[in-house]
Amino acid sequence: MEMIWEYKGKEDLMRTHVNKRLFFSKKSISNKTIQQIEYRWSSFGKVKITGITPRGQKENKISLPVYLLKQDNSYSEIKFYFNYPASKATEQKPKKLFFTLKKNKKLIKTRLLVGWYCQNPDGMQGYMKSVSIIEKDIVIPPDTDGKGFIIPIELTESDYQRAACNETETSFNFLYFVLWQKDKTYTLFKFGEKMQFDAYII
Questions:
Q1: Which pLDDT value is given to residue 24?
Q2: Residue 73, domain extent
Q3: DSSP secondary-structure letter at 71?
Q4: Predicted structure pTM score
């Protein structure tokens, strides 16, 4: 099948939680602020959020930051909000998303959450609607050969048609791909870890 979308750089990312208060519209948000991966972790029971700007060839390298704050090992999450809205999917009729995680040095047990999302940016009146595609536990082995671990996700027309109906003029509309880890059941993402990823849609 023909590739109809591919992650090529940070312009293909969308992040709803920004680092400054907004007063008017999403036009007031800088591209630098929203074109990031979102990393969350827990410190003494409180959730901390930061944006990560991918670096390197095709800007697909992730380097988790290191903080003076203690990471309490109860929760972590990496959120990829791909700038591919459901309304675009209704025009292109995609069939599958392929996500590859590379260069991870440890076995990762995680909860995978994928779906279509519509959300107003911070500082605007609250609006949030989603259509879930999949939610399940997966195991990602360490990358020993440099090829990475491929996660295929089915994209159905009924899902993205329903999601497109939720989009508004002010909402950020995207395809989310989240690796979620909590309560010592899963493998936490730790400060300073490095990995790479690829993503494309056919």
A1: 41
A2: 5-201
A3: P
A4: 0.90
